[in-house]
Amino acid sequence: MADTKREIERKYEGPPAGGDAPLPDLTDVPGVSGVIDKGVAELDATYYDTADQRLATASLTLRRRTGGHDAGWHLKLPVSEGVRDEIRAPLSDTVPEDLTALVRSRIREAELVPVVRLLSARDVRHLVDASGTLLAEVSVDRVRAERLSGGAGSAEWTEIEVELADDGDPAFLDKVEKKLRKAGLTRSASASKLAKALHDTAPRKSAKPEKAEKTGKAGKADKAGKADKVADASTAATATVTATAAKPEPPDSAPRTAGDHVLAYVRAQRDAIVELDPAVRRDVPDSVHRMRVATRRLRSTFRSYGKILDRTVTDPTGVELKWLAAELGVDRDQEVLTEHLTAALDDLPSDLVTGPVQARVSTWSGARRSGSRQRLIAVLDGKRYLDLLTTLDTLVAGPPLLEAASKKPEKVIAKAVRKDFKKVADLVGEALELPPGSERDLAMHDARKKAKRTRYAAEAATPALGNTAADLVKSMKSLQTLLGDHQDSVMVRGALRELATEAHEAGENAFTYGVLYGRQEQHAAALEAALPGEWEAIEDKGAV
Question: Phi then psi for 161, rounded to 5 degrees?
């Protein structure tokens, strides 16, 4: 089984390979009481990637390493600058399936192949405090890189790496860096050894090709050259559609047209889905919710900005995004419902709790969540999901822009947001006219969904429209919260009815469920009473 380690480190440029590392005396770094020489370890690492380097493009590294204290397979996922999560698996001859799954959203169906081999002599020192506790590990690495695919180059260099001890204070690295800089060292220009190896061993561009001999072969050479160009163009086009790596780089210039702004938002949500995939697989807290939000933002954007992106193209993709959001919601919705039930039960005085209520809630929740985790992983490994990612890549690479996309955002985008706002106003008005009951509950739920869509449209519009759009985002978020709390109450009351029925059939006292139901009714009534004032304040501000 794979395990995870949070890695916080910094790399510094050293002298050419074979020279003495300019490592200063670190005993006078504040907090350091001793520097322990741990000897030299010989490391042999082979890095894997797709032929078109999709992992490297996304700043992911996957290697098989022998030597040292942590031999095995290591997958490093970026968290922030200088911070990565290292997922480890035992040594094996082939890439472990657990690690392959974590990069599935990047590689899709492409094969992982050896791309670079790094042979390192690592001279290790431990920085410890007065009690002997490890503060950081400093290593001087003399590295030789050998290209294994896409060329046959090699390179050598020396670098210094400072890795913070587990649970250490990141501020300590600043103290070490201050000392290293005084000694003339600077931060490495490469984010990782692999990045430097790929750069330094990349095939160099050849000089201008020799002109074809002025013979009958010239015509053949010219035709062959044209054929090569066609083949290269075909390969490039295929790579654009199928290679996720990786995400295409954003445009060089700032967004100017309405289409530029909408596509920037679309691209960000597509990237979020791909980047959150490993976190969802690892069950990182809130990752499922965040991926679900990204899918909803994308779908809402396609619907809100139908004058910019052709809906005959985006609607089928919207159907697939709706499916993915529903699959992500299987676990999330039950989790939220259980949290509400547990919190409501915790707030209840003990003398109002009769029977095994907590146990029944736990059993009920567990039964409803049974298998949902396995189902979600199966979805992420399935063809339908991977096809959706490829479709999104294709859409971003060649967006179905309509004529309005080339116009100024102040008019086109603002008009789309106002249209969504008008729909929210109609739905809120309808809900306020209905008497309390199931019809009003449904109307408020519809208004909530529309408020969410308007919020996402305003988010996409904010870079173009500024504060007016940002204010609308806040207004819609506030309305969405109120209406969302009301919908949660509706769902909790439904669950309480179900639990009360089960308890009654089991011969248990259902009194507590009735008390909780009554409290939820009161909560919903209070929210309904607050809605007119909330909406009046929003209307006063208006749309963009």
Answer: -120, 130
